[in-house]
């Protein structure tokens, strides 16, 4: 920025110098035009004086008119004096013109130098402007980078805040777990003590249970022997009951046979079939009808029978 201000100041100085040079050049041009106008007037006056002198003395040598003393009329002498003054003024004007031309050349050189410096200053200004534009672009890029970094920083801050919150939650959870671990450790110690006590009780109970098992084994052996005896008695009792039932049924069958195959009632069908399940006698057609109609139970005792459980009776009178 300081270099840019310095370059601007130098450019402004060069512009002022160029403006002053242009002003001086314009003034010099006006002075030169005025001098040329005066020279032209003096030349015209000189020409008129020479013309008048030639008319006044046609045989006189104009080259020696100014070197020898003039002995003529006062009018001619006045013209000669005026010509001398005019010639001297012309010479002075030429010298002044030469000096002005020299000054003009010097000023042209100065103007050329100023123009060169101005061109250099313009080039420098252009370079500085390009450098400024480049710096502005760099600043814009840097601003964009800073903005991007700011956005990244904000995201990182948000992430850090979330991580801090997570860390706080984890620390709280860790504290709770440590407390729970201490509590479980105490409970484990208590459980170990209880386990030791229970182990002692268990050993005691095992000893008692072993004794009880021996007692139970002895009683079980005795009970099994009693049960075997009881079972044998039940089996014998069942056999006796079946024999008694069979005898009773045979007696009933015998009494039925004594009454006759019809029971003594006219119109009743002849009982010519027996159920081997219960030894009750009925007519063959009645049993067959009950079997076919799925009424497969004894009409007297409701004992179920199948196809092979009823047979014909062949009795002779």
UniProtKB/TrEMBL annotation:
GO BP annotations listed: chromatin organization; protein ubiquitination
Coiled-coil parts of chain: 153-250
Reaction equation(s) it catalyzes: S-ubiquitinyl-[E2 ubiquitin-conjugating enzyme]-L-cysteine + [acceptor protein]-L-lysine = [E2 ubiquitin-conjugating enzyme]-L-cysteine + N(6)-ubiquitinyl-[acceptor protein]-L-lysine
The EC number(s) this enzyme carries: 2.3.2.27
SUPFAM superfamilies tied to this protein: RING/U-box (SSF57850)
Region Disordered: start-end pairs: 1-32
Pathway info: Protein modification; protein ubiquitination
GO cellular component, one term: HULC complex
Keyword Ribosomal protein attributed: no
Record family assignment: Belongs to the BRE1 family.
Name of the protein in question: E3 ubiquitin protein ligase
Lineage: Eukaryota, Metazoa, Ecdysozoa, Arthropoda, Hexapoda
């Amino acid at each position: 920025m300081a270099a840019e201000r310095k370059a601007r100041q130098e450019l402004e100085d060069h512009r002022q110098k160029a403006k002053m040079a242009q002003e001086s050049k314009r003034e010099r041009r006006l002075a030169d035009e005025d001098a040329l106008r005066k020279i032209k007037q003096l030349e015209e006056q000189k020409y008129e004086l020479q013309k008048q002198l030639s008319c006044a003395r046609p045989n006189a040598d104009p080259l020696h008119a100014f070197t020898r003393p003039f002995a003529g009329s006062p009018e001619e002498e006045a013209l000669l004096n005026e010509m001398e003054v005019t010639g001297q003024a012309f010479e002075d004007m030429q010298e002044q013109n030469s000096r002005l031309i020299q000054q003009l050349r010097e000023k042209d050189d100065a103007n050329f130098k100023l123009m060169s410096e101005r061109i250099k200053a313009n080039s420098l200004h252009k370079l500085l402007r390009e450098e400024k534009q480049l710096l502005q672009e760099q600043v814009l890029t840097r601003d964009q980078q800073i903005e991007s970094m700011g956005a990244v920083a904000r995201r990182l801050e948000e992430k850090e805040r979330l991580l801090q919150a997570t860390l706080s939650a984890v620390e709280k959870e860790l504290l709770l777990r440590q407390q729970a671990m201490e509590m479980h450790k105490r409970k484990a110690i208590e459980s170990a003590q209880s386990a030791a006590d229970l182990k002692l009780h268990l050993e005691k109970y095992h000893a008692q249970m072993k004794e009880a098992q021996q007692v139970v084994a002895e009683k079980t052996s005795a009970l099994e022997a009693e049960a075997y005896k009881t079972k044998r008695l039940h089996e014998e009792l069942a056999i006796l009951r079946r024999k008694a039932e069979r005898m009773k049924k045979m007696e009933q069958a015998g009494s039925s046979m004594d009454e006759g195959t019809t029971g003594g009632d006219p119109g009743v069908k002849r009982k010519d079939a027996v159920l081997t399940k219960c030894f009750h006698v009925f007519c063959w057609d009645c049993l067959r009808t009950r079997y076919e109609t799925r009424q497969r139970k004894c009409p007297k005792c409701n004992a179920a029978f199948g196809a092979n459980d009823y047979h014909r009776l062949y009795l002779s009178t």
